[in-house]
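Notes, p. 3: input format for complexes.
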Amino acid sequence: MILALFGPPGSGKGTQAKYLIRSLGIPQLSTGDMLREAIKSGADVGKRAKDFMDRGALVPDDLMIALIGERTSQSDCQKGFLLDGFPRTVQQAEALDRLLTSRGLAMTAVLSFKVDRAELVARLSGRLVCSRCGASYHERAKPTKVEGVCDLCGGSVGKRPDDRPEVVESRLETFMTSTQPVEAYFRQQGRLLEVDALGSEEEVKQRVAAAINGGRAG
Ligand SMILES: [Zn+2]
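Output follows (218 residues plus zinc ion):
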């Protein structure tokens, strides 16, 4: 079971990823975590990646693929794995396919979480965070008992600059523009499973399970 997840910020992707790894018994591999681990372990790919990161440069695709290759050959990936934050470009998707093919494997499915744009803006721009303890709230979905005051610690609760509606709009625009080509690549191969991410966590969880089972059977 080799999965990748796509979803804009605010789509609930992170929550669904947690359900998936628990129910399938596979690890979630995020590019950030893999890089940090490789650097910490002193592995050769980690050293090479660190050179780029220290210079403020992006880690090149071939190095990222080498890193994924190493990480996914570890024993906890025997039943599969779930990629988070990769592939981000068609070039990366093709390189990943080559890596998997060379091991006689293939991507099982790419799940794409779909949420109406206006709904996403409402979700994201309504987020509130406690400046003292970091607890998170939402204007609509999870308001504090007393406006502007944290239920847990009494600290002041407000919006992060990143969650202003205009900033949210531009983050979404960037996300959609950059992921469209990769989604098209997987759609063309019949491996893209689009999931309606509107609704409760439980509802979305059911849809994800149905999409994966349907995708496997078909
Ligand atoms: Zn607090």
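The chain is about 50% helix and 15% strand.
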